Amino acid sequence: MSDKELNWKFADDFIVETEAITRARQQSLELGVDAISPAVGAQTAVIAAASGAQNILEVGTGTGVSGLWLLSGAPAATLTSIDNEIDHQQHARISFAEAGIMANRIRLITGKAGEVLPRMNENSYDIVFIDADPQSVIEYVEHGLRLTRPGGTVLVAHALWRGRVADPAQRDEVATGFRTLLTEIAASGAVVSALSPVGDGLLQMTKRA
Question: Does the pTM of the predicted model rise above 0.70?
């Protein structure tokens, strides 16, 4: 194992997840859902806490792992989460309830993100977290930047896509799409951005006021 791999493993092992997140993660494994790593989850919680988030939008509910992490950092926030798998959302709803999160703080929307996002109000969210259909990541980020308030943050999970994005020899659609997104964001004056290598990568974009 390389030094970098040891660092990544250490960063994940350093995190202690709650029982609710641990159960949700186990359910995600059983259902074949690729949940964010503990280190990525902890980073999203820190960002949610630092921003004082009140309204969070999540693209890709899964079984609730990322939603639980975001709400752990912003315990007064409301979470709107989109997913086209109603079965996954049913598991997530149970996960939120087991964590003691009131039902009126959770809004689960079942549907395709590409159809739901255009109907949502712009400048309405403190954080938009994206962990869904990687082929559509550029489209989702465009919507995310529209939907976040000035000073709000868009987060994109799996931004290094299993190590393929950093390898220019990898030319598949997903790796190329993430590479294009990263290039465009790095050149944009509309956001302050950073790419964290923890887990499978976390792209962070804060919308300039």
Answer: yes
Q: How high is the pLDDT of residue 2?
A: 85
* pLDDT tens for each residue of 108-126: 999 999 999 999 999 999 9
Kindly report the CATH number assigned to the domain that includes residue 42.
Answer: 3.40.50.150
**Contact between residue 141 and residue 154 where contact means Cβ atoms under 8 Å apart:** yes
Residue range of the domain that includes 68: 3-207
Compute and round to an integer the Cα radius of gyration of the chain.
Answer: 16
Count of the separate structural domains present in the chain: 1
Average pLDDT for 6-33 = 95
